[in-house]
Amino acid sequence: MSAKREPLFNKVALIGVGLIGSSMAHAMRRADVAGHIAGYAHTPEILERAKAVGFADSFYSDLGACVRDADLVVLAAPVGAFAEIGKAIAGDLKPGAIVSDTGSVKAAVARDVGPHMPQGVHLIPAHPIAGTEQSGPEAGFAELFDGRWCILTPPVDADAAAVEKLKTFWESLGSKVETMDAQHHDLVLAITSHVPHLIAYNIVGTADDLETVTQNEVIKFSAGGFRDFTRIAASDPTMWRDVFLNNREAVLEMLGRFNEDLAALQRAIRWGDGDALFNLFTRTRAIRRSIIDAGQDSAAPNFGRNSDKPQ
Amino acid sequence: MSAKREPLFNKVALIGVGLIGSSMAHAMRRADVAGHIAGYAHTPEILERAKAVGFADSFYSDLGACVRDADLVVLAAPVGAFAEIGKAIAGDLKPGAIVSDTGSVKAAVARDVGPHMPQGVHLIPAHPIAGTEQSGPEAGFAELFDGRWCILTPPVDADAAAVEKLKTFWESLGSKVETMDAQHHDLVLAITSHVPHLIAYNIVGTADDLETVTQNEVIKFSAGGFRDFTRIAASDPTMWRDVFLNNREAVLEMLGRFNEDLAALQRAIRWGDGDALFNLFTRTRAIRRSIIDAGQDSAAPNFGRNSDKPQ
């Protein structure tokens, strides 16, 4: 141990050991950036399952004990629980510690956690744009953040050294890091993540409710496009409920735009305006190309699904 | 040659050699079900590209010459071109030939092609529920139809032997085959394919139009869900324009249901009804499971995208 280089953080406390928390633990071990990883789970069952996978050095069912002496505390729980967690850990935080999170909304973090933070503790909210439709401590893997963006939303008066350290941390986990204002983050994510999830959940619900088409038919013939939406609509329900409740304004704003555009498309179909349809369908192709060029998706047809692809 | 078993069809004519037509040619060769494969392309450029790949035995820029002596003629072109093609090939069809297609809408095929068919020719519309977001003669591959459903919509007075022969043909290409009424097909596909494509095209267009979020941000942070929609929204514009123009009623009906449900979700977000959100998000998870169990999608997280997954 003594011959090794100093780790970036002596102790990292993960509040939540589901998909994101466990993936962070795996990635921290891969990068060797934490002297000690402590994991907290809010139920005995999840704690036992996390212990069985064994990605942390210690496991706690007590918040205070988990964060004590930690140099970095990461809230990797549903955003709706943040206020309560912030309040519960406040008294046990080490002076100078960085408190961060992995929530998909960011203005709510400053609002809910900020007021509880003692003087000298650095609250720097963060959001790794990575995930899968699976959840739980068994779902994590070290490569989850590789090549994905992590957005930091430090308050205007944040300690520059602490922000820099958190940036280095996420880069060591494989991420590319960008910094922006929390409100802008919430607007960007509303269109790139929250509204897409909402409409995916919605159409899967619509299909499930039909009387004229059976559920069996929906399932059998889903390869026509519907199945793509079901993946997103299989994401963690608690996490996503909290996202929508905590990013209300931005989601409603983007949803308003979506609805307006959809009404125009609906009208084009009703009146047989083929040119309007063709023009939109041509324009959208270019965006896919840009996403592939930016390394944010696979160029393989059908995402390279192993069941569908030859090469 | 003389020692080989008789192929299912002596000559198959493919009217259209894009993703679907070329995949059929590859799959026919794999299964050895056609004595001769003839391919037609409607532009000299596509014809040359198809010849370069070389998946057919002969290539034509003349419709009549392509279908002459064919036992099976398959229209694998955008549905909007079917009426014209039906009229153009009518005089050259072999008596007893089967005329089929691969269009994503089915009532329109009987309406547009049916009136042109001479006595003794069997029109049996078909729809293989398979594809990728890529198009053109280079995009095809033999495995495209493996394990996917192909729906036949024979008219009520269809020749039973011809229907059976077409069923055997699609099974030899790897498909599972189901038969249903054309109107019901159009309703089922409206929810499993057409409306999902429409809302994917729509949200990609909405994101492209925003002033408050840059296109660069949309592309960088697309891993949050948006990128999934861009794959579908990269599908062939002509094909999809024709689908919406030719399945208007069913699409508008399903879109009405989608909009109604989305309005309820929007209201739940506005009023902070977390239970309504949680209940929907829980229900939709089960549908994903059923689709995986039915072998219609990969169980791997993120569709097993090679860029994201370790196992």
Would you spell out the secondary-structure blueprint of this structure?
The structure is a homodimer of 311-residue chains.
Chain A: E1 9-15, H1 19-31, E2 34-40, H2 44-53, E3 58-60, H3 63-67, E4 72-75, H4 82-89, E5 98-101, H5 107-113, E6 122-123, E7 126-128, E8 149-152, H6 160-172, E9 176-179, H7 182-209, H8 215-220, H9 226-232, H10 237-246, H11 248-270, H12 274-293
Parallel strand pairs in A: 1-2, 1-4, 2-3, 4-5, 5-6, 8-9
Antiparallel strand pairs in A: 7-8
What does this structure look like?
- Two copies of one chain form a homodimer.
- Chain A is 48% helix and 12% strand.
- Chain A is α/β, with parallel strands linked by helices.
- The first copy, chain A, has two domains: 9-180, NAD(P)-binding Rossmann-like Domain (Rossmann fold), CATH 3.40.50.720; 184-272, 6-phosphogluconate dehydrogenase C-terminal fold, CATH 1.10.3660.10.
- The radius of gyration of chain A is 21 Å and the shape is globular.
- The mean pLDDT of chain A is 95.
- At the A-B interface, helix 7, helix 8, helix 9, helix 10 and helix 11 of A face helix 7, helix 8, helix 9, helix 10 and helix 11 of B.
